[in-house]
UniProtKB/TrEMBL annotation:
It is found in: Cell membrane. GO terms for cellular component: plasma membrane. It holds the Pfam family sCache_2. This is Calcium:proton antiporter. Its main location: membrane. Residues 25-111 form the Single Cache domain. InterPro entries: sCache_2 (IPR033480).
């Protein structure tokens, strides 16, 4: 019984520490996207594509559009077809294969994003990527979901935050809370 209680206390502490770092991230820089904004924008983009269908893809490719904010953006990809569907800052990637793309550490970025997008509420993946306007790669943690569209098996959408401290576990807990507010820790 004590082991269960200890495990529960450790889990609650880890969640609190993770959420504290999420709050610290939000306060750190008003020009940096927050994880909460990323989740909201990705869910909004998924609903947008469900409503607009394939005609909504053009809006995702627009660098001045509603899916680009602060220091990040929503991008779309098709895991089944192995291709980039929309990227507002990398038009050279649109229509190209994605599964072989690796970061500077050899991580297959899109293989992991596809796996994360397959979860019920989506999921987070960390990797190295160049921040818009920056010359060097930074640690990026992206949230991915699948948008169900008519006459399609689905398009995956993602957006991320550039942060060295956030953990995937804390971000997954945040996502669960936003998807089901009854999961908030009191």
């Amino acid at each position: 019984m004590n082991k269960i209680r200890t495990t529960a206390i450790l889990a609650a502490t880890a969640l609190t520490i993770g959420l504290t770092s999420l709050t610290a991230h939000a306060d750190a820089d008003a020009d940096s996207a927050t994880p909460q904004e990323v989740i909201t924008k990705v869910w909004g983009a998924a609903k947008f594509l469900q409503t607009k269908g394939i005609s909504g893809i053009a809006a995702l490719n627009n660098a001045d559009g509603p899916w680009v904010w602060k220091d990040t953006y929503v991008f779309a990809f098709d895991c089944r077809m192995d291709r980039m569907v929309a990227h507002p800052f990398r038009p050279d990637l649109v229509g190209r294969p994605i599964m072989q793309i690796t970061d500077s550490n050899g991580k297959h970025i899109f293989k992991e994003l596809c796996a994360a997008a397959g979860h019920k509420n989506g999921g987070w993946v960390d990797y190295m990527w160049t921040k818009p306007g920056a010359g060097n790669a930074s640690r990026k943690v992206s949230y991915a979901v699948t948008a169900e569209m008519a006459f399609s098996s689905g398009i995956q959408l993602a957006a991320g935050v550039y942060d060295d401290a956030l953990t995937v576990e804390a971000l997954d807990a945040l996502t669960a809370q936003m998807a089901d507010p009854t999961k908030y820790v009191h």
